[in-house]
Amino acid sequence: MKIVNLTPHDLTVYLTDDTTLTIPASGTVARVAQAYTPLGTLDLGNAQVPLVATTFGTIQELPDPQPGVLYVTSGLVAQAAWNLGRTDVLAPDTGSGAVRDDQGRILGVKRFLAHPGLKL
Questions:
Q1: Which residues contact 33 (CB under 8 A, 6 or more apart)?
Q2: Domain containing 43: what range?
Protein backbone atom coordinates (compact mmCIF):
# COMPACT_ATOMS: atom_id res chain seq x y z
CA MET A 1 0.00 0.00 0.00
CA LYS A 2 1.34 3.44 -0.93
CA ILE A 3 0.61 6.42 1.34
CA VAL A 4 0.68 9.98 -0.04
CA ASN A 5 0.93 12.71 2.59
CA LEU A 6 -1.18 15.68 1.47
CA THR A 7 -0.54 17.71 4.64
CA PRO A 8 1.98 20.57 4.74
CA HIS A 9 4.44 18.75 7.00
CA ASP A 10 6.12 15.39 7.51
CA LEU A 11 4.10 13.00 9.69
CA THR A 12 5.68 10.93 12.43
CA VAL A 13 3.92 7.67 13.20
CA TYR A 14 4.82 5.90 16.46
CA LEU A 15 4.83 2.17 15.73
CA THR A 16 6.10 1.49 19.28
CA ASP A 17 7.43 3.81 22.01
CA ASP A 18 10.90 3.48 20.47
CA THR A 19 10.15 3.03 16.76
CA THR A 20 8.79 5.69 14.44
CA LEU A 21 8.02 5.96 10.77
CA THR A 22 8.16 9.30 8.96
CA ILE A 23 5.81 9.90 6.06
CA PRO A 24 7.25 12.87 4.17
CA ALA A 25 5.06 15.69 2.91
CA SER A 26 4.40 15.24 -0.81
CA GLY A 27 4.58 18.94 -1.64
CA THR A 28 0.86 19.03 -2.45
CA VAL A 29 -1.58 20.12 0.26
CA ALA A 30 -5.25 19.12 0.06
CA ARG A 31 -7.61 21.74 1.41
CA VAL A 32 -11.34 22.45 1.60
CA ALA A 33 -12.44 25.78 0.11
CA GLN A 34 -14.09 28.10 2.62
CA ALA A 35 -16.34 31.14 2.29
CA TYR A 36 -17.20 33.52 5.12
CA THR A 37 -20.42 35.44 5.76
CA PRO A 38 -20.26 38.35 8.25
CA LEU A 39 -22.72 37.97 11.13
CA GLY A 40 -21.97 41.11 13.12
CA THR A 41 -19.79 41.92 16.07
CA LEU A 42 -19.42 40.37 19.51
CA ASP A 43 -19.25 43.10 22.14
CA LEU A 44 -16.78 42.19 24.89
CA GLY A 45 -17.07 45.51 26.70
CA ASN A 46 -13.65 46.94 25.89
CA ALA A 47 -13.32 45.16 22.53
CA GLN A 48 -15.40 44.33 19.48
CA VAL A 49 -14.75 40.97 17.79
CA PRO A 50 -16.15 40.23 14.31
CA LEU A 51 -18.28 37.10 13.93
CA VAL A 52 -18.50 35.15 10.67
CA ALA A 53 -20.21 31.96 9.51
CA THR A 54 -18.13 29.50 7.52
CA THR A 55 -19.39 27.59 4.51
CA PHE A 56 -17.23 24.74 3.26
CA GLY A 57 -16.95 24.09 -0.46
CA THR A 58 -15.03 21.78 -2.74
CA ILE A 59 -11.93 19.82 -1.89
CA GLN A 60 -8.84 21.17 -3.61
CA GLU A 61 -5.68 19.22 -4.53
CA LEU A 62 -7.07 15.76 -3.65
CA PRO A 63 -6.11 13.38 -6.47
CA ASP A 64 -8.62 10.94 -7.91
CA PRO A 65 -8.64 7.50 -6.27
CA GLN A 66 -5.92 5.10 -7.43
CA PRO A 67 -5.67 1.38 -6.65
CA GLY A 68 -3.27 0.70 -3.80
CA VAL A 69 -2.96 4.37 -2.76
CA LEU A 70 -4.16 6.01 0.45
CA TYR A 71 -4.07 9.78 0.94
CA VAL A 72 -3.37 11.39 4.33
CA THR A 73 -5.02 14.78 4.79
CA SER A 74 -6.18 17.04 7.59
CA GLY A 75 -9.23 15.90 9.53
CA LEU A 76 -11.38 18.56 7.85
CA VAL A 77 -10.42 17.40 4.35
CA ALA A 78 -10.88 13.75 5.32
CA GLN A 79 -14.39 14.43 6.68
CA ALA A 80 -15.34 16.24 3.47
CA ALA A 81 -13.93 13.38 1.38
CA TRP A 82 -15.71 10.73 3.48
CA ASN A 83 -18.98 12.64 3.00
CA LEU A 84 -18.42 12.20 -0.75
CA GLY A 85 -17.88 8.45 -0.29
CA ARG A 86 -14.08 8.51 -0.58
CA THR A 87 -12.71 5.60 1.45
CA ASP A 88 -9.08 6.15 0.37
CA VAL A 89 -8.52 9.19 2.59
CA LEU A 90 -7.01 9.04 6.08
CA ALA A 91 -6.41 11.68 8.76
CA PRO A 92 -3.85 11.62 11.57
CA ASP A 93 -5.53 10.94 14.92
CA THR A 94 -4.43 14.09 16.74
CA GLY A 95 -6.83 13.41 19.61
CA SER A 96 -6.28 10.42 21.89
CA GLY A 97 -4.03 8.83 19.24
CA ALA A 98 -1.44 11.62 19.46
CA VAL A 99 1.96 11.50 21.15
CA ARG A 100 2.69 14.82 22.88
CA ASP A 101 5.67 16.42 24.56
CA ASP A 102 5.57 17.73 28.15
CA GLN A 103 4.11 21.03 26.90
CA GLY A 104 1.27 19.32 25.00
CA ARG A 105 2.70 19.82 21.49
CA ILE A 106 2.08 16.96 19.08
CA LEU A 107 5.19 14.94 18.23
CA GLY A 108 3.39 12.33 16.15
CA VAL A 109 0.47 9.93 16.05
CA LYS A 110 -0.09 6.28 16.88
CA ARG A 111 -2.92 5.76 14.39
CA PHE A 112 -4.96 7.22 11.56
CA LEU A 113 -8.66 7.94 11.28
CA ALA A 114 -10.32 6.16 8.34
CA HIS A 115 -13.67 5.85 6.58
CA PRO A 116 -15.57 2.82 7.98
CA GLY A 117 -15.85 1.40 4.46
CA LEU A 118 -12.08 1.24 3.87
CA LYS A 119 -11.04 -2.17 2.55
CA LEU A 120 -7.36 -3.04 2.83
A1: 56, 57, 58, 59, 60
A2: 2-114
Nearest CA among 82, 69, 70, 67 for reference residue 32:
82
Nearest to 26, CA basis, from 53, 45, 6: 6
Task: Give pTM, 2 decimals.
Answer: 0.87
Strand pairing of 89-92 and 112-114? antiparallel
Question: Where do the H-state alpha helices sit in 1-118?
Answer: 75-83
In tens, the pLDDT along 46-71 reads 999 999 999 999 999 999 999 999 99
- Report CA-CA distances (Å) from 23 to 10, 27, 50: 6, 12, 38
Number of structural domains found in the chain: 1
